[in-house]
Specification:
The protein has seven helices and seven strands. By secondary structure, it is of the alpha+beta class. Bound molecules: adenosine-5'-triphosphate (ATP) and magnesium ion.
């Protein structure tokens, strides 16, 4: 319930174009390691592995609000635990002016009815509706947080199975210098 309330609040503020951000220079690796640490016991309970990959060093510094980014990563990891399978891999990749933060799993990927518009509000797959709680707002929050930073959210089903969902965040240099 708390998460739903938090997601709704962020979405409402983002809709009004005034999602408050407190950005700072932070390494993508740190953001992902903190997210992994928060999710570790939930993953262990389900017998799932959670790994953090990619060391971009200085190239991995982003200018982002750590709390909002954490909220987005937590939503992605919750999805990977709920709807995915196998190992969950958090990885940072370097783009031209931005850094990509990926959450990848080894499940069967997004269902057909969701994969075209995964970030749409209230869009949920049949298995998600059958599985119970959830509002279909988690990914909408993820996109709102990425957009507020000037970034984007993307999702795809990997050819060898599983979902790959990522956000892009500006590099530290893009705004702070
Ligand atoms: N890693 C994933 N693998 C397969 N399907 C996924 C994955 N992540 C999301 N989905 C599908 O996308 C739908 C939308 O996800 P979203 O996080 O927006 O909503 P939710 O998880 O159903 O509810 P909420 O996040 O509000 O609790 C899910 O219901 C599920 O069908
Ligand atoms: Mg969700």
């Amino acid at each position: 319930m708390t998460r739903l309330a938090d997601d709704l609040l962020v979405l409402a503020r983002a809709d009004q174009g005034r999602l408050p951000l407190n950005p700072e220079s932070v390494s993508a690796r740190t953001l992902m390691e903190s997210a992994a640490a928060r999710a570790r016991s939930a993953a262990q309970l389900r017998g799932r592995r959670l790994v953090v990959r990619g060391d971009l060093g200085e190239d991995g510094l982003v200018y982002a609000d750590p709390d909002r980014t954490a909220q987005a990563l937590d939503n992605l990891i919750t999805n990977a635990l709920r709807y995915g399978d196998g190992t969950i891999t958090l990885t940072a990749e370097s783009g031209t002016d931005l850094v990509e933060l990926h959450v990848i799993d080894e499940g069967s990927g997004f269902p057909e009815e969701v994969v075209e518009r995964p970030f749409e509000r209230f869009g949920r797959g049949p298995e998600a509706r059958a599985a119970g709680p959830g509002s279909g707002l988690g990914l909408a929050l993820v996109r709102a947080v990425a957009s507020a930073h000037g970034g984007e959210a993307h999702a795809r089903n990997r050819p060898d199975g599983g979902a790959d969902v990522w956000i892009t965040l500006p590099r530290r240099q893009a705004r702070s210098l």
